[in-house]
Amino acid sequence: MSYRDTHPTLYPRSHSYCAANEQRVGSYLRTLMSFGSSPSSVLSSLSSYRSRPFADISYNPTPDVNEVYPGLYVGDAIAAKDKAFLRRMGINYVLNTAEGKRYTQVDTDHLYYRDCPSIHYKGFQMMDLPSTDISRYFHIAANFIDEGLSRGGRVLVHCFMGVSRSATCALAFLMIKRGMSLAEAMATVRSRRDIHPNEGFVRQLQQLDRELREFRVSRIR
């Protein structure tokens, strides 16, 4: 369930994470800067956001999080940087799939959560580009998420807007640890959140799907 679902008047339901133009992304960036972020440049990954479909709505700078599987939340940088929000939500595992200080990255780390002793943190330094090798993090992410859930925790997987890097890692977890096919994992997450992994990430998930299917077949023989 989305945080906005429980606060319908304060947080009208909208797909604020689907950026479509520089003005909207700029607004998002200014909000992040209010939390202490200082991106140094506009990188080519911005083009992937411009091409995504979006609703003609105003940007609402509130935490954008959805529970895509019991105990597993996918969200944006605003949610990850709002420690009071994380406490209210009971989040105690945070996976930042966009760690870093460049544009479209989120500059949190272990030190950022040093005043939140209940939070277990892990970060991957990735850009949302088709050429990024996200597959090398699939099993690391799956293990981290599985550890949090197996301990009865709540896990937030986030990136900048919560649609590509974080979504891809959440999908990998469902495939590796919950035995879902890519199609099943995609349907599960998309029934709860609008996600758009870039084409390079989709290809790597397809390869993971093939490898897992072959592995499971080999165990039956």
**How many distinct helices?**
8
Placed side by side, the strands forming the largest sheet appear as 1-2-5-3-4
- In total, the number of domains comes to 1
Q: Strand tally, please? A: 5
Q: How widely separated are the two ends?
A: 40 Å
Net shape? globular
What's the CATH architecture?
A: Alpha-Beta Complex
What is the radius of gyration? Answer: 17 Å
Name of the CATH first level: Alpha Beta
Ranges where pLDDT stays below 50 over 5 or more residues in a row are: 2-28, 30-59
Query: How many strands, which pairing sense, and closed or not: the largest β-sheet?
Result: 5 strands, mixed
Mean pLDDT: 82
The amount of beta strand, in percent, is 5-15%
Quaternary state of this entry equals single chain
Named CATH topology: Protein-Tyrosine Phosphatase, Chain A
Structural class: alpha/beta
Descriptive account of the structure:
With 221 residues, this protein is of the alpha/beta class. The chain has a single domain (3-220), classed as Protein tyrosine phosphatase superfamily (Protein-Tyrosine Phosphatase, Chain A, Alpha-Beta Complex). Helices cover 39% and strands 10% of the residues. It is built from 8 helices and 5 strands, in the order ααββααββαβααα. It has helices at 22-34, 46-50, 77-81, 83-89, 138-150, 165-177, 182-190, 199-220; strands spanning 65-69, 72-75, 93-96, 120-123, 155-158. The chain has a 5-stranded mixed β-sheet. A hairpin with a 2-residue loop joins β1 and β2. The chain is globular and about 50 Å long. The model is unreliable at 2-28 and 30-59 (pLDDT under 50).
